[in-house]
# Entry
Amino acid sequence: MVHENKKRFKCDLCKFSAFQHADLRKHIEGVHENLKLHKCVICQKSFGRKSTLNRHIEMVHENKKPFQCDLCDYSAFEHPNLRKHIECVHENLKLHKCQICQKSFGQNSTLKMHTERVHENKKPFNCDLCDYSAFKHAEVRRHIECVHEKLKEHQCNICQKSFGLKENLNMHVQSVHTNKKPFKCDLCDYSAFLQTNIGRHIECVHEKLKQHQCSICQQSFGQKINLNRHVQSVHENQKHFKCDLCSYSTFYLAGLRRHIECIHEKLKQH
# Structure
């Protein structure tokens, strides 16, 4: 049966075919009837096949990665993923081009993700506690931990500032303490740590785009974050930073520093 390569059992609902009727039955249950009888005891996720459940446990919870790259320390659960890694990273093959922005990718799945995330702006996962939404469930989980649960487990060993995400800590160290600004504006001497900041800079400074308007006083801003700061500091009168030496408080840390330098350090000199 195997050597003849005939898959006699065909699905009436799609193009799937199998050597054995049992495999066809499993396909129908798992795909078309959406029966997921095999539940992971660790995370409660359910699967249509026992083999898929076993694969999930080994890959996600046991973090098994038996296939090692000979050129770096990358490892993968499956050999095809290792092959794709070598092609994309070491051989630098990027055969899948975005038809909208011409950016190229090593894998078609990455191109599809790029299109949905960047150009279609898909954000199917929503936070139950606010209006935040994201492309991936993991991003919503991190958002909840950082914003609502206030978890900040990654501390900078230079200034002791804490962050919810390791990548934000790394970004902080490189942009603030090492002052890396690899991206330059073509219109002035402005430079930034992120390319996205250059884009916002050009829109706000050179193109004078101010698309975010305050619904209270109608003042407009180039960035939504500046609008939010305006509302919190001006209309809501939020003052998070308090002076330890007097009753002064302010919305901005920089404002508190200037206050201490001008008022208290000046007083100490006389």
